[in-house]
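From the pipeline queue, job 12 of 40. The input is one protein chain; the requested action is below.

Action: predict structure.
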Amino acid sequence: MAATTVNPQSLTNSFYKLEGIQDLDPLLERIGEAKFVLLGEASHGTHEYYTWRAEISKRLIQEKNFSCIAVEGDWPDCFEINRWIKAYPGTPNTILEVLNNFNRWPTWMWANWEISALAQWMRNYNDQLAPEKKIGFYGLDVYSLWESMRIIVDYLEKEDPEAASYARKAIDCFEPYGEEDAYAARLGSIKKTCREEVLRLLLEVKEKAPQYDHAPEAGLNAEINALVAANGEKYYRTMASFGGNSWNVRDQHMVETLNTILNYLGADAKVIVWEHNTHIGDARATDMVDDGDINVGQLIREQHRAEEVVLVGFGSYEGTVIAGRGWDAPMQKMLVPPAIKGSVEEKLHALSPENKLLLFNKNPGSIELFKGWLGHRAIGVVYNPDRERGNYVPTKLTERYDAFLYLDKTRALHPLHLKPQGHLTPETFPFGM
């Protein structure tokens, strides 16, 4: 990865300081009238990524009338957050009761104090709005196949007996396998998949969804759960096949879900997306293209005008993170070592060890420094600091994102299932306030 050499003195005015909420003004100006603002993260377990995204989201909601936050989470779980922040009937008294029901690994991604604080803010904000104006919180991911099937069967049994017959056939098809992974594992030895059943269910629900709104957003809930069933089956079937690309199935599903939400909310709807950098940063500016991978950021850019889409990446030099040593392993707080030499993060730290905001359409020096190929750190829910060099994605930063938040030292987020020190609610702002 050849790097471009630039005199650091020429970069003095090439980035903005990033110390408080007011320092987000240049980013808000850059966003302008965009309808899609995608906010990334370089890990799924860093406090500052969650809190800075929360502060950006609050300003977008308050100042630019954004309609919802859509995240890299399961639809059924996130829909319970959505119901709570909108004070729908039958919701628990506190957001902690909602989040404590998140039991799919990695639980810490959404069952954390940072999300608790954001959800409480959204509830308070929504309390001032008319029902049709309330801000939503939705999940985009594809993993909840079984849970979505159960939800839609229970719902249709009460609301639409004809459609329920399709749902029963679909769930009867899945019943022998028990769980998603078991279905994927046995696909190679069975003659028939469940795809036909779930596609019939999806078509039936899509056609009748407008009739289902006897409860708030019931039609949308039914349609997305049916979509998860259809694309979830495809995802696990692709995982089991030779030459299939389950990554692309997943990201295409997330975009399809996003488009379904926006169609439901109406022509004026605007959305904030929270996902990992590997999903929101344009795949065409990384080595993902070598494997034929696409992602959410690329697809949104391709489907909409340039001025409608703003992609915002995040990164840090060193700190701590919550992750697991393996899939389904216990979560733990791990050290994140200083970024490797020549990486995006190391270059920004070498310029000055302070937080920075880069806007690539307004900072000529930063464009020059980062226009070539550089390693850019990406930590997933599974992390091994001892193999740090394997955690870098070759990236053309100025093409991958429209803006970049660099946070020099970061710390692990605060999962609900780990007791905070002193038994106090952790501080949930990205800076002293």
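Job complete. The chain has a mean pLDDT of 88.
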